[in-house]
Structure to design on (187 residues):
């Protein structure tokens, strides 16, 4: 199979390689019920040493910078209560944590979750967190721009490997909230 973007040697439909994914991601792919069939989710095997977006795009194709999205875990706090959410923005943008995210979560303060919290709560590896397979009670804030990209490269739950998913599928994730302006130009 040829990947819909990038220059990958090993690309397969994600449902055929569930053993390459973390348990929560594999379960989400296995039980996917969105309008985009899970068979259109493509798993590509990649080198975990070059998982970070800029280095990754240098190796697998510079066009990937415009077709990749980053998923980050954020923590919102109000009073003594804390809640977690995920944010998905195109890789050329940064998450507006102190503005859009804080307001969306109804939090007094919002920040990126510590690495051990992000990995512990998701069951995914740092550098590979993906919006697919997150805890169902979490809001998954998706920048509207992600939905406009035909195929989006995201993490697979591990540093090794990535998923290529039709952009419109992210609006159908459990807990998805599509937001204009979640991602702002990185600067």
């Amino acid at each position: 199979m040829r990947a819909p973007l990038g220059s990958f040697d090993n690309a397969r439909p994600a449902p055929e390689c569930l053993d390459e994914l973390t348990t929560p991601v594999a379960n989400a792919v296995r039980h996917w019920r969105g309008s985009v069939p899970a068979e259109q989710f493509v798993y590509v095997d990649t080198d975990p040493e070059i998982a970070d977006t800029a280095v990754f795009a240098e190796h697998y194709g510079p066009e990937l910078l415009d077709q990749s999205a980053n998923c980050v875990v954020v923590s919102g706090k109000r009073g003594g209560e804390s809640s977690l959410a995920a944010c998905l923005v195109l890789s050329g943008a940064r998450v507006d944590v102190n503005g859009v995210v804080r307001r969306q979560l109804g939090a007094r303060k919002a920040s990126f979750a510590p690495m051990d919290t992000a990995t512990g709560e998701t069951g995914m590896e740092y550098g590979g967190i993906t919006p697919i397979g997150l805890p169902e009670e979490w809001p998954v804030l998706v920048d509207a721009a992600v939905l406009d990209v035909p195929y989006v490269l995201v993490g697979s739950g591990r540093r090794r490997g990535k998923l290529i998913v039709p952009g419109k599928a992210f609006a159908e994730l459990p807990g998805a909230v599509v937001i204009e302006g979640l991602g702002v130009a990185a600067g």
Remarks:
- The chain is about 20% helix and 30% strand.
